[in-house]
Amino acid sequence: MSRRSQPSYFSSETWEGYNFSDLEIRIKESTDVYGAVLWPSAMVLCHFLEVNQDKFNLADKNVIELGAGTGLVTIVSSLLGAKVTSTDLPDVLGNLQYNVMRNTKGRCKYTPLVTELIWGQDLDQRFPRASHCFDYILAADVVYSHPYLDELMNTFDYLCQENTQILWAMRFRLDPENSFVERFQKRFHSEELYDLPSLNIKLFRAWRRDKWTNDS
What is the rounded CA–CA span in Å between residue 211 and residue 176? Predict the structure, then answer.
């Protein structure tokens, strides 16, 4: 996946361009909101999904992305054939919806669903387990400068069912965020898939502690 930038000199918006296989992806950012900025961890996760399709095949899989932000991970997952539920806070949904629809319409087997998700709130009503069984939970840089890490942990725990795998890319910055990883690893089995020291980014796979024992 290659990248190019096109800043706007008349607003706080920036366009990012990517090539995924032979398709162009154009992402609109807004520097006014954390969630509407494309962070490096999202690119790392997208690259991983693209080059590891043999082991992590998303075709026809049920996928949910937490903190989807600008939508790049959702878009790439959809282009790889996944049935994606793309979630974030209400203030970034407009930009997220725009990017996702612009880059997936007519290109994907399944139309991604963009919807609001406030971590830890009304999970059993919004995503009842009987009808919302996800094969993968995807997340990139979801803990950066975020005050609701307990709620994020509870959301991971609720959505991660017996056969669910979590793929989570994180850029290590601050101690409170780093300690979240330690707590996460106490709650879930995990393995490190990628380590990029130059960017302080690691990519983890995780699953419930009471399942997937043959892989642990």
Answer: 28
Per residue in 33-53, pLDDT (tens digit) is 555 678 889 999 999 999 999
Q: Tell me the CATH number for domain 35-208.
A: 3.40.50.150
Please, what sign has the CA dihedral across residues 114, 119, 125, 130?
positive
DSSP 187: H
Q: Judge whether residue 175 has pLDDT over 90.
A: no
Mean pLDDT across the chain, nearest whole number? 87
Q: Output DSSP code: residue 127.
A: S
Nearest to 88 by CA among 64, 110, 104: 64
Query: Of the candidates 125, 128, 122, 102, which has an alpha carbon nearest to the alpha carbon of residue 114?
Result: 102
- Measured between alpha carbons, how far is 44 from 38 in angstroms, rounded to an integer? 11
- What gap in Å lies between CA 61 and CA 72, rounded to an integer? 18
Encode pLDDT of 87-106 as tens digits.
999 999 999 999 999 999 99
Determine if the pTM surpasses 0.85: yes
Beta carbons within 8 Å of 41's beta carbon, 6+ residues apart: 140, 141, 169, 170, 171, 201
